[in-house]
Amino acid sequence: MNWRTTLTLLLLAGALVSGWSVWMHRGAAETGAGSGGRSDYVLHDFELVALDDAGRESFTLRAPRMARDPGDRTMAMQTPLFLLPDSENHYWQVRARSGWVAADGKELRLRGDVRVDGPPQGRKVALRTEQLNVFPDRDLATSPAVVTITQPGSILRGRGLETNLASKRYELKSQVHSRYVPQR
Questions:
Q1: CA-CA distances (angstroms) from residue 92 to 83, 119, 176?
Q2: Bridge partner list, 91
Q3: pTM assigned to the model
Q4: How far from the centroid of its chain's Cα atoms is residue 151's Cα?
Q5: Name one GO molecular function term (predicted).
Q6: Going along the chain, which residue ranges are E strands?
Q7: Are 95 and 80 contacting, i.e. CB atoms less than 8 angstroms apart?
Q8: Cα separation of 142 and 128, whole Å?
Q9: Is the pLDDT of residue 29 over 60?
Q10: CATH says 3-180 is which class?
């Protein structure tokens, strides 16, 4: 599996979190007017397993805390860990210091030491950056920060990333460096 697959899985996770967010907010919007702002919630030390339409695991989200802001209806997560199964049921891991989901579920922001790691059973692929913005409806992931993609035989580094998962194309915006690393 290559890093493009990783980004595809990350966008899928963002889409599912967005869908879950919209579903959770749907009921709150209907009862929110008379509830005096009591419709927000906080989850502590939780694990969320999201299923696809066929009932298979799409992703698992673990975090020590997730809270919804009653004012703007956004959700914030502390140290989220997304576990994304690949076609062989091995898990990609996506970590960050914090995560944020827009009220409409159309944007996911991962901030601080964002780490995407391929499964240990497969090809060792890793993506590192300080921030990653995911727009599931547009099949788009971006980062204005420095991004490092490491895989067997190469290290690719640049400032600014834009990837379109539908077309499987990516672009590092500036200061791009590629390094060949012989395998031992």
A1: 6, 5, 25
A2: 85
A3: 0.69
A4: 20
A5: glycolipid transfer activity
A6: 42-51, 57-68, 75-78, 81-85, 91-95, 98-101, 108-117, 126-135, 140-151, 154-164, 169-180
A7: yes
A8: 13
A9: no
A10: mainly beta
